[in-house]
Write a structure and sequence with these properties.
Number of domains: 4
CATH superfamily of the largest domain: Phosphoenolpyruvate-binding domains
CATH architecture of the largest domain: Alpha-Beta Barrel
Distance between the termini: 44 Å
CATH topology of the largest domain: TIM Barrel
Shape: elongated
Strand order of the largest sheet: 1-2-3-25-26-27-28-29
Strand content: 15-25%
Helix content: 25-40%
Length: 625
C-alpha cells in the first residue's frame, strides 16, 4: 500500500488555522467593549475587523502554497468575511472539525461585499448604473460665482463635491453649495457634499521681507536669443495688473497721463545699468511698455519720459511708487542648521561675513508653539512636503535646532508658511481647532459629510462625534483622513471609534502620509489601509495627486494613469482642482469604467478579452490550429 504523504501537511494546516481561530477568539474578547460601543449597523463589521486584525497577526505565507495546491482559498482575499473564510477552509480540510474556540462565526462570505456596498451608498449616495467607484472633486473657488463650473463637473462624472474649509470663507462656500444643489436638481443626479475641516496644519511662520523690487526678462530661444520682449504695465499704484504683463510699475497719475504710444521711458536699474522701455499701448487706467532686456526696478527708481512726437512732456520725470515687499527665502544645504523658535518673530536667512564665516544660523518660527514640549532630540523633521529634511539635534523650551540632512544637490530655497511634519513625534495637539468648531456650524447646516483632518487619536474622533451631536448633526457622514504615521498605526482604533456613528469613510491622504512615513512605504501603507477598511466594510477615498498633471497641464503622465487605474480598488477617487479638471474627470470616468470590467476590489473578473479572441487567429488572419 502506498504511503499517504499528505497527512503531515494536512495536519499542519489544520493546526495553523486552529491557532488563528483561537487567537481571534482571544482578540475578540479583548475588543468586546469597543465592539459593543459601535453603532448597531456596524456591530458585525466591527467583529469582522477584529477577526481580520487577529488573522494578520500571523505570517501565513508558508501555508498559502499548500492551500493553493489543494484547490482551496489561500486566505488572500478574506477581508470582508474573515472568520467565515477561515472556517470554510477548515471545513474542507477537516469536514468533521469541531470549533475549538468560542468565537462568533462572523460575517457570511456573501454578506461582506453587500455590507460594503450598503455603507458606501449611505455615505456617498447611489452608484451610477455603469460605475461603482465614485469620483470626488475639490470644488474650485470660481464655482461660487460660476454655476457652469459645477454643472459641467457633474455632467462629466463628479459624484461627490469636496469643499475645503482651509480656503475661502462662508460666503464662498454658500455659493458653491447653492450651485451644487441647483445642478443636482437640473440634472436629476445625486451629488453628496463633503466639507473638509482644516485641522491643525503645522506650518512655518513668515520671513523678514526684503527690498521692494520687481524684475523681469524677455523670452529666449534655445540659443539664448531674445524672441519676445517683456511686457510692463505702468499704472497708478492702486490699480490691478493685466494678465499679460510680466511686471507692474506703480507711478503717479499725473506722470502717467502724459504717456503716448511710441514714447520712450529711460531709467537706471537697481544694478546701475541704463535701460529703455517703449510704450506700445495707452489706456485709461494705465499703459503697456516693452523691453528687450532683463532688469530690476525698486521703489524710488527715477523714470524719465521722452515723447517721440510733438512737444516734450511738461513733467517728464517721476519716481517709482512704493512697491510690494519681496520675501527673501532662506537658503539651506545639507549640514546647515535651521533654528525653529517658539516666539513669533519673522524668520531670517543665515548671516555670514564677506569671507563666508557663519555668524548666525537661519531661523524661522512655527505656527503651533505647543509642539516644542513634545519634540525630542533625534526626532525627524520634514519641511515643505519633505523637500527639506533634518534631525532635531537640540531641543529647549524655546527653540529646536534642526540639522539639515536632505535638500536638492547644492542647497535649496525655503519660503515662509511651508508645511512641517514631525513623523517620529507624538504631538499632543487636538485634531479639532477653534476654527474647525466655528466652521462645523456651517458644515452641519449645508453638508452631507464632514472630513476630519489629521485623525490621530480615537478620543479626537469621539470629540467630533460629540460636537456633531451638540449641533444635531449626528446624521452627517464622517470621513477620517489618515495622513500621519500615528494615524496609520492607530487605524483599527480610529475605525472602531468612528463606527460609533453612521455612516463613515476613510480618506488616504497620500501627500502628508508619504512625507511622514517615507515615499518607499507609501504603496505598502495604502494597501494596508484598504485591507483594514474592507474588513470593517468602510468605504475608502483614494486621494492626493490623482491625474494631477492632467488637471494642471492638460495631459497625463504614464505613471499617473496607472495610479488612477489602481485606485479602482477604493470606493471613491478624489481629484484636485486645476485648469483642465473637466478633462481629468472625463478621463478618470473612462479609466474606472474600463477597469471595473477587469477587477472587483482584488478579485480578477474574467470578462471576454479582445486580445484572447484576436490571438486565436494567425498573423495572416487565418484561424489558428
Amino acid at each position: 500500500m502506498e504511503q499517504d504523504d499528505t497527512r503531515p501537511a494536512l495536519a499542519d494546516l489544520q493546526k495553523r488555522l486552529n491557532e488563528v481561530r483561537q487567537h481571534a477568539a482571544e482578540v475578540e474578547r479583548g475588543f468586546a467593549p469597543a465592539i459593543d460601543a459601535v453603532d448597531p449597523c456596524f456591530r458585525e463589521s466591527a467583529r469582522n475587523l477584529v477577526h481580520y486584525l487577529a488573522l494578520r497577526h500571523f505570517d501565513l505565507r508558508d501555508i498559502q502554497g499548500h492551500l493553493s495546491a489543494m484547490g482551496l482559498s489561500t486566505l488572500g482575499d478574506v477581508e470582508a468575511h474573515t472568520m467565515a473564510s477561515i472556517d470554510a477552509v477548515r471545513g474542507a480540510l477537516e469536514p468533521a472539525a469541531v470549533d475549538n474556540a468560542s468565537v462568533s462565526p462572523g460575517v457570511r462570505i456573501e454578506e461582506g461585499p453587500e455590507l460594503l456596498v450598503a455603507n458606501t451608498e449611505a455615505l456617498m449616495g447611489t452608484q451610477r448604473d455603469d460605475r461603482y467607484v465614485r469620483i470626488m472633486v475639490t470644488i474650485p473657488t470660481e464655482a461660487a460665482e460660476n454655476y457652469d463650473v459645477v454643472r459641467d463637473l457633474m455632467t462629466s462624472g463628479m459624484d461627490c463635491a469636496r469643499i475645503n474649509c482651509a480656503r475661502d470663507d462662508e460666503t464662498t462656500w454658500t455659493g458653491m453649495v447653492e450651485h451644487i444643489k441647483r445642478a443636482k436638481e437640473e440634472l436629476g443626479r445625486d451629488c453628496k457634499i463633503f466639507m473638509d475641516l482644516a485641522g491643525p496644519k503645522l506650518r512655518l511662520g513668515g520671513l523678514e521681507p526684503g527690498p521692494r523690487v520687481t524684475s523681469w526678462q524677455p523670452t529666449f530661444d534655445a540659443r539664448g536669443k531674445a524672441t519676445a520682449p517683456a511686457a510692463l504695465w505702468f499704472a497708478h499704484e492702486h490699480l490691478p495688473r493685466p494678465s499679460k504683463a510680466d511686471a507692474v510699475i506703480p507711478v503717479s497719475a499725473s506722470w502717467l497721463a502724459q504717456a503716448q504710444p511710441n514714447d520712450c521711458v529711460r531709467f537706471r536699474d537697481a544694478n546701475g545699468v541704463d535701460h529703455e522701455i517703449v510704450i506700445t499701448n495707452v489706456q485709461d487706467d494705465g499703459c503697456l511698455g516693452e523691453i528687450w532686456r532683463a532688469a530690476h526696478i525698486e521703489t524710488g527708481t527715477e523714470l524719465e519720459l521722452h515723447h517721440t512726437h510733438g512737444e516734450p512732456p511738461t513733467d517728464p520725470t517721476t519716481r517709482v511708487s512704493i512697491m510690494p515687499e519681496v520675501e527673501v527665502p532662506l537658503w539651506l544645504a545639507v549640514g546647515d542648521t535651521l533654528v525653529l523658535h517658539k516666539d513669533q518673530r519673522l524668520g531670517e536667512p543665515a548671516v555670514r561675513t564677506p569671507d563666508g564665516t557663519l555668524v548666525d544660523h537661519a531661523h524661522v518660527s512655527c505656527t503651533m508653539p505647543e509642539v516644542f514640549d513634545d519634540v525630542n532630540v533625534g526626532d525627524a523633521v520634514m519641511i515643505d512636503d519633505g523637500k527639506i529634511s533634518g534631525i532635531a539635534r537640540s531641543v529647549t523650551g524655546d527653540e529646536i535646532r534642526v540639522a539639515v540632512t536632505l535638500t536638492k544637490p547644492g542647497g535649496q530655497r525655503l519660503r515662509g508658511h511651508k508645511g512641517i511634519n514631525f513623523p517620529d513625534t507624538h504631538l499632543h495637539v487636538s485634531a479639532i481647532t477653534r476654527k474647525d468648531l466655528a466652521d462645523l456650524d456651517f458644515v452641519v447646516r449645508h453638508a452631507d459629510a464632514v472630513d476630519m483632518s489629521f485623525a490621530n487619536e480615537p478620543g479626537d474622533v469621539l470629540t467630533l462625534l460629540d460636537e456633531l451631536e451638540k449641533r444635531d448633526g449626528r446624521r452627517l457622514g464622517l470621513v477620517l483622513k489618515i495622513e500621519t504615521k500615528r494615524g496609520f498605526y492607530q487605524l483599527p482604533w480610529l475605525l472602531l471609534a468612528g463606527m460609533q456613528g453612521y455612516p463613515i469613510g476613510v480618506m488616504i491622504a497620500r501627500g502628508d502620509l508619504a512625507v511622514e512615513c517615507g515615499w518607499e512605504r507609501l504603496a505598502e501603507m495604502q494597501e494596508e489601509i484598504l485591507w483594514f477598511c474592507e474588513a470593517a466594510h468602510i468605504p475608502v477615498i483614494w486621494a492626493t495627486q490623482v491625474l494631477e498633471h492632467l488637471a494642471k497641464k492638460g495631459f497625463p503622465s504614464r505613471a499617473e494613469v496607472t495610479d488612477a487605474a489602481m485606485a479602482e480598488r477604493a470606493e471613491c477617487v478624489m481629484l484636485n482642482k486645476g485648469p483642465y479638471i473637466l478633462r481629468a474627470v472625463e478621463t478618470l470616468d473612462h479609466i474606472l469604467r474600463r477597469m471595473e470590467e477587469h477587477h472587483e476590489k482584488k478579485i480578477m473578473r474574467l470578462r471576454r478579452l479582445t486580445l484572447a479572441h484576436a490571438a486565436q487567429r494567425r498573423p495572416d488572419g487565418q484561424p489558428a490550429g
